[in-house]
Specification:
Elements: E1 10-14, H1 19-30, E2 34-38, H2 52-63, E3 67-71, H3 78-92, E4 97-100, H4 115-143, E5 146-151, H5 154-158, H6 164-181, E6 189-196, H7 204-208, H8 218-223, H9 236-243, E7 253-257, E8 260-264, H10 279-284, H11 286-290, H12 301-305, H13 308-311
Parallel strand pairs: 1-2, 1-4, 2-3, 4-5, 5-6, 6-7
Antiparallel strand pairs: 7-8
Helix pairs in contact: 1-9, 3-4, 4-6
């Protein structure tokens, strides 16, 4: 089996100082890529900051013979995003892959989430993906090649109590991914997303009582019921696959956790049809309205619209 290498690639990874981003950076570097490790070193809730977080990952890569440079620009603004790209250009002359991984998390009910928490969540998660994608886009168009891998979340699709702002931002990333993928045409650019589930510092205390994966024993720990899921390192292979030049998948979202990789679809059920219906009809046909039988997996909004005339016979 031929290994998937990245010797000709320059990869920007946001939020790459810890957790998932760090594992992505190490994995890309191990397969020959030059890596820009972007991280402002904040705590999980977005507070604080330290440039040493990114530099620590760079040091790990360099000591093993890899190529990497640290960057601590803020990705939530156009100016900051352009500066991250300039770091890649100055160090390695180009950029071919963008992994939008930067994110934060904090918990609270709707009543507890204030404007500051809401705006900060949107800025880092959604604005960051937008600004970074826009910053690399002209370079990708010029070279007729580029890969963007965004990071959404199952919390956006299924929801989580205490995380309405997080879920909203992550679902926004999914919509951004789907829309941008349709702008690629024959440009040689692909845009996809992952919805990762792994035990990281961002979730282990709140959800898992401080549980941590322990090296190579994580599979045995899952089997024994000691852990609910695997470590961040098992998510990275999906990111590398989507980033490779041979992978032409475009506009898809993949749920990735503990060795399982599966496409996420936003499906529309066959539903209830009656062009003269009133609210009482919907009440009386609730099961049909809610059923996902005969579902459609639309690739854009036109797919569902194309079905409407057929319903009239």
């Amino acid at each position: 089996m031929e290994a998937m290498r990245f010797d000709e690639d320059v990869v920007i990874i946001t939020g790459a100082g810890r957790g998932l981003g760090r594992e992505h950076a190490l994995a890309f570097a191990a397969r020959g890529a030059a890596v820009v490790v972007n991280d402002i070193g904040v705590e999980p809730d977005g507070e604080g900051g330290s440039a040493q977080v990114a530099q620590g990952v760079v040091d790990e890569i360099i000591v093993t013979g890899g190529r990497a440079v640290a960057d601590s620009h803020d990705v939530t603004s156009a100016e900051g995003a352009r500066a991250v790209v300039q770091t890649a250009l100055d160090a390695f002359g180009k950029v071919t892959v963008l992994v939008n991984n930067a994110g934060i998390i904090d918990f609270g009910s709707l009543e507890e989430i204030d404007d500051t928490s809401w705006r900060r969540m949107m800025a880092v998660t959604l604005d960051g993906s937008f600004q970074m994608s826009k910053a690399v886009w002209p370079h990708f168009l010029r070279q007729k090649h580029g890969r963007i891998i965004n990071t959404t979340s199952n919390a956006g699709f299924a929801g989580n109590a205490q995380l309405v702002h997080y879920g909203a931002a992550k679902l926004g990333v999914a919509g951004f991914t789907k829309g941008l993928a349709q702008e690629t045409g024959d440009s040689g650019i692909t845009v996809n997303a992952i919805a990762p589930m792994a035990i990281t510092r961002m979730n282990r205390d709140a959800f898992f009582g401080g549980a941590q994966t322990q090296g190579d024993d994580w599979q045995a720990d899952i089997r024994a019921g000691k852990l609910p899921m695997g470590p961040p390192s098992i998510v990275s292979p999906a990111v590398l696959w989507l980033a490779h030049r041979s992978t032409t998948v475009n506009g898809d979202i993949f749920s990735v956790s503990s060795g399982k990789v599966a496409r996420v679809g936003f499906v529309v059920g066959g539903g209830y049809f009656n062009p003269d219906h009133g609210p009482e009809d919907l009440r009386d046909n609730l099961a049909t309205v809610r059923s996902l039988d005969d579902y459609l997996d639309p690739q854009d909004t036109r797919d569902e619209l194309a079905l409407i005339p057929k319903l009239f016979g």
